[in-house]
Amino acid sequence: xxxxxxxxxxxxxxxCGDCVIACKTENLVPEGLHRDWIVEDVSGKFxxxxxxxRSERCNxxxxxxxxxxxxxxxxxxxxGSNIVLxxxxxxxxxxxxxxxxxxxxxxxxPEGYVSKCTFCEHRIKKGLVPACASVCPTHSIDFGDxxxxxxxxxxxxxxxxxxxxxPEAGTRPNVYYLI
Length: 179
Fold this sequence. Notes:
The chain has helices spanning 18-27, 65-69, 96-100, 121-124, 131-135, 152-159, and strands spanning 4-9, 36-45, 48-57, 75-77, 84-86, 107-108, 114-115, 141-145, 162-163, 175-178. It is of the alpha+beta class. The chain has a 4-stranded mixed β-sheet. The protein has a two-stranded antiparallel sheet with strand order 2-3. The chain is globular, with a radius of gyration of 16 Å. The mean pLDDT is 97.
């Protein structure tokens, strides 16, 4: 089984937003809605401040509450992988998945169904990486299968310290942030 992961280097991301624009363009995301976004997180106390810039999106969790709480089965895990998708023809727009997601990664499309990051599953089928990773000018976004011993994402996770967002939620996210 493929276990896709995205590894984002918070030390080299400059928050340019190219990933956001690439995603919107690739996936025809309407104006005002986003499948990914930039977060600037400042911590510490003056003069010892630290700023982390992160490109965030759906975490394609291994234990996705959005799938568990979807009453129609519209949210599901793609067979043979860990990619969490939404079948828009089954989605009633009830927002149970939106309430269940601790990452605020879902939204309602103007047509009434839920949408979110798909890891550009349509590009993966063609052997391509997600649009956000393909355009990052600082090469801060890496993507691959962590079950492949030669994958760059696995090498990065073995070589560098990393974190996931909201680990206490128990969702086992598959987006990792190098710190």
